[in-house]
Amino acid sequence: MDLDTLRDADFKLLDDAVKDWSTLVGTLEGLRKDAAGRLRGRAEKARWGGVNAKVSKEFIGKTAAEFEDAHTQATTVHKILSDTAGELKGYHRQLVTALEGGRRKGLKVVGHEGGFTVSSDAPPQERGSTGRDADAGAVALRDELERILREATKSDDSARAVLRALADQSKLGFSGASYGDRDSAAAAIAKAEALAEVARKNPRDVTTTELAAFNATLATYRNDPLFSETFARNVGPKGALVFWAGIADPFQAAFDPARGEQAKQLQKNLGITLGQATLSDSAGMTKWKKQMIALGDQRLEIDDASNPTGFATMSNLMRFGDYDDRFLNDYGTKLLAHDKQVTGDGFNLWVSNANQSDLNFWGQKNDRGRDPVTGFLEALGHNPDAATEFFGAPDLASDPDTDGYKVNEHLTYLTQERDWMSDSSLQGDSKIVAGRDSLGHALEAATTGFAYDTDIKDIIAAGGGQRTAETAAVMEQVSYLYGGEKGPEMLHKQPELADSLGKMAGAYIDDIDYSLSGIGDHMRDEETFPPKYQGRANFTEAGAISFLSVLGQNETSHGAVTAAQHLYTLSLMDANPPSNEANIERAHDGLMVGAEARGILDHSRVSQAEADFKADSEEANKSLGRSADWIKAGTGILVGAGVAALPVPGSTAVGIVIAPIAADTAGAVMNTFIGHGVDTAVDGNEKKPTDQTQLTRNKFYEKGAEDFGSACNAYGSGNPEAEKAIRDRDWVKEIKGAYYGIGGPENKYRGHAPHED
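Given the sequence above, the corresponding structure tokens read:
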């Protein structure tokens, strides 16, 4: 900024802009509230049908979000303009004051292109002995003017840079980046530029102390949009990978525990930072994302970490952070296409002696990070929308040659075709395949709408339900695969997925029950099992039975689904208190379907225990005893509006079952389960080995029947009308028939037989 520009500045246009943006912020605030409350709120409550269920509702949701972002961006722009206007006015006043002070001292200032000059008004012959003083005054005035102009230029330039960066964040629509003032936004950009200089150094030249400071800055700014994009673009896609691989090289970090710990934190901080950067739609980041994907199958051409590929490096960074959905889907599609070329016939190039690029510092005993598919699936597990899209149901209408049911090719490959290998270290368990566990995480996110490790309290705070027609379409495919002919073998060979499959089925237990409520696929009971979202999952009756019969075979998945099923059945009774005949009828129907579902699960569990432990009935006894402990989940339940979250029974893995409930909150009947202790009476203690399994099976079934009896008692207790209905209609006999009938002889013809090696 030159002297004449600041001295002669007319701030009216800038003041008008500040005023206009202030008005716009107020207007957008009203529109934002209307969009969130009226537009989105009514859209969520409306009963959409046909194409509108997907297109219109989704469009309205995105439109409401755009109003939110528009208000955020306008607020930030207003604050930046207001700050800049105030500062420039201040510098203008300082400049005028300095010029006036110089004039009074006989100093003349003349501005010209490229700068200004300061001189004395008095001719040289008249200056006399004061000449040296005049020269000193001119130098002081020059320095003061240069300082003022330098600061004004800095203010003007930083405002321009920040405003341009904000505008570039979103090519279409608005940016959600929010800053309280111009200086905080400018500081974020400056910090990113400084950190990028460090990241461009040879990683081996970065000291542990320097790396610790690097991590501290990343931890502070990793979710800042302007910081993240500036850093990512300045370092470049390959630069970011080279820096991480060099820092993470185990042959460097292993000899220095402090550096190894800093590398571990860098993996997380850098992953989150790059993820935030990918959310920008700027032309620069669009190019960056394409370049990163193009680097996937290429070697980095470095001496560190076995010269890894782009996929092997980036997949370990993306285990953390919120990434752009399109980027993840494009990245994953190319990764799997390449993966098919380097794996197969019992061989996996990633997990072999040829690859020693251990680039994962989290859970590394069982997951060294050599298999990039594992890291990518972890990314999907933390990015639900991207996961739902990646495993989305194929569009059959666009494929006229399709005959029958079609499954997403990514899902088919990862569940049925890929050769998975354990990537454990010498200290880990070689029987554990971390990649399959990560596949379960990705599918959880794809079907529930939540990151697989979302905190239970956050789920309740978010209102619980995030299911859509799209998430349901993924769930239908999962049920089709694992409830199909190969389902028992798949679950048996993929034990790492058991907890995830149980959680997914628990999240859709209302739709599973609805599928069981009719005769075949006709006359389903929507009054008792109303949809909780548009486009609910359709499992078909045969499909629901088959899926439950497979999940019942595994202790962990059996426990998760059983807990969710029991909770949902109890909630149906709370949602239909015995105040009128219609409610009592719905409670009865809910109990009947619940008993049928529980019967399928329990019979499957008993049959599998007997198949697994033919020669050792004591072990079968213990197995069924563990399966009966699903009731422990009742002690950890949190209930919100229409949803309950409970720990996965029998699993040490991080995770919870997100179970839909029919009532808004826990009522008297549900409270018979919440906080309930463990019933240890299931364990048999008979001395005859030949009798133990049969006795345990009997007690196991008796416990199941007892759970429904307890529910009936809680529902009818103290209500004569309900007690009379229970007696007159002989609920006990009907429910026992549903539970034992489906769970016993009928199961020979419905559902899958136990898996046998």
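The CA atoms of residues 160 and 703 lie 71 Å apart. Try to locate this feature in the token string yourself.
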